[in-house]
Amino acid sequence: MSASTTPSSRPAVTEREAREVAEAAREQHWRKPSFAKELFLGRFRLDLIHPHPVPEDEAAQRGEEFLAKLRDFVETKVDPALIEREARIPDEVIDGLKELGAFGMKIGTKYGGLGLTQVYYNKALALAGSASPAIGVLLSAHQSIGVPQPLKLFGTEEQRERFLPRCARTDISAFLLTEPDVGSDPARLATTAVPDGDDYVLDGVKLWTTNGVVADLLVVMARVPKSEGHRGGITAFVVETNSPGVTVENRNAFMGLRGIENGVTRFHRVRVPAANRVGEEGQGLKIALTTLNTGRLSLPASCVAAGKWCLKIAREWSAAREQWGKPVAHHEAVGSKISFIAATTFALEAVTDLASQMADEDRNDIRIEGALAKLYASEMAWTMADELVQIRGGRGFETAESLRARGERGVPAEQLLRDLRINRIFEGSTEIMHLLIAREAVDAHLSVAGDLIDPEKSLGDKAKAGAHAGAFYAKWLPKLVAGPGRLPTSYTEFKHEVDLSGHLRYVERTSRKLARSTFYAMSRWQGRMESKQGFLGRIVDIGAELFAMSAACVRAEHLRARGENGREAYQLADVFCRQARIRVEELFTRLWTNTDDLDRKVVKGVLSGTYAWLEQGIVDPSGDGPWIADATPGPSQKENLHRPIR
Known about the structure:
Blueprint: H1 15-25, H2 35-40, H3 57-77, H4 80-86, H5 91-100, H6 118-131, H7 133-145, H8 148-154, H9 157-169, E1 173-176, E2 192-196, E3 199-210, E4 217-224, E5 233-240, E6 246-251, E7 262-273, E8 277-278, H10 284-295, H11 298-320, E9 322-323, E10 326-327, H12 332-361, H13 367-392, H14 394-397, H15 400-405, H16 413-421, H17 430-441, H18 443-449, H19 459-476, H20 501-525, H21 533-561, H22 566-592, H23 596-608
Parallel strand pairs: 1-4
Antiparallel strand pairs: 2-3, 3-7, 4-5, 5-8, 6-7, 9-10
Helix pairs in contact: 3-5, 3-6, 6-7, 6-11, 7-10, 8-10, 10-13, 11-12, 11-13, 12-13, 12-21, 12-22, 13-16, 13-17, 13-21, 17-21, 20-21, 21-22
């Protein structure tokens, strides 16, 4: 096909076809053990996470040395109020981060990077992000999902030698998947990459390209048409942003993260050498999903930083602010919020450090753990920030600049709330994460019984599946009846001044209950199970709480054994687990007692206009315009806003 071939229109995709594309992209096999996968199957494999894994001494020393340099830099060179006010990270700050090596934290020393572990990379992101969340996003988008990580996992050695030294010191990278009409449904991807000799010719528009405005290198997902000699499919490419035909058409502005360089990028007949293709044709989504397995851990790191700051401000403010004769912290209504922030921050750090260390050791499959960490941390951090605003009262709603202007400490509580909100959407929304994790959690069931509930399978296939499933469940189901969670002597190594053993017994018992509930639901709904998103979301949320409880207990024991605030860690883990158990019991109740069916009826009424009368009495300030911008391929009609930083 020639470069002049008109790109095909957006593919018309059925729901089944979309699911097949997503299914083909996911890792099909479990070659390594997974603590979270076992947890959803009712098997509490504490041995997979306890004793808590630790980094090697040399890696820890290298990481601590960099953290010291980074702390000095952000304390002396970064003005977070300026970034918020001007909605831009100053070029000199970005240049300073480059000189420091911050853009090469995850790149190996062989290619000019620092070669930090995932644990210390996350600690660095938390530190930088606490100074300015926009800086944390800049560094994370560049390394967690930008050019370095896909090349590390799927690139050729020649590609690594060409691009990684640039990414480590001079160049900024971005990841481009989303399109104006394509979010979590990549089967409808419209950007094309048409083979033409030794090149591919890219046409299309990408939306929400974090770092895209200032990036030098892009990872672009595009659809290669199937043709002779080309298997086709969604494929990943490294693209030079200064290539002819690449136009940054807009720098987007958001309610939070005002300093990020996020834009709209158009490709018009952009020639990309075949040597810049990452992996094989059709591997693009697999590359994206695999990259995100560890890339998602950057978001929990930022959430941990947010929790730590919330705790610091809550402690200082609640001790200084008096109402009715005593500090507000001593009023139970406020004190319960402070307790929640402290306990949850401890748990989030436990989850993040544990998942990160497991990623470093590479002995476990952490695809579910990483997803659970992202899901849980983004939801809990938002709640903590909301509680901090409530604790601060009117001052929580007031901007830091306004507070400073009238002589008070400029505490950006409302900014934190705005900055954190995107984490529930970034890199997989909460709703998509529920579905993604649920799919992995029931993988064992679908592997043995999937054909039974597939309406397109023949009677012969169903008979074979029935025999296979019968053998599996005959062994599995009896193991869900009893376990060490019912023995008062189990997990006694977690029993000291504060007893955490009971919480681990609860996790063991509850994981079996969770597995029984999942099995019952599959038996009840069979092929309709995939549409029960409310049920699946609650199943996943229960698993997330159990994972966090496990991580908190293991971290507390790890700190106690090392003589690092062990008594206090046990106290925090105990409080967190007690709070989590209340949430778990409520979720179990809502598995079967909910308004899901009624909600679906109301939604049909809303969409059909039955309740349109309820919308009367207002004006809509939205203005005119299409809901989704036109993304028809073609030459750009706008000024190129690309702003490389050199």
